[in-house]
Amino acid sequence: MDSFSGATSGGSPPQMSTEDFMDQLKTQLAQAYAEEFLETVRGKCFDKCITKPGSSLGGSESSCISRCVDRYIEATGIISRALFSSQR
Fold this sequence. Notes:
Helix Hairpins; mainly alpha; 88 residues; disulfide bond; elongated; mitochondrion inner membrane
């Protein structure tokens, strides 16, 4: 039996309800968005705040990263609200 065969006879995959499919799609999109968000923030804030990489963060580097991430989150929220309000 291959990985595409379902538990039902005839080899056809089990049917998923539209609601279940939409929930699964939303979960996958949220996960992809979170991964992309973290990668973007990591790259931008690291490039901006870490001038001399070492084994630990200095106080100014730590506060710079914190401010950078906070600003990025705030900007993303503003953009999201603007996009969603324009769709109504």
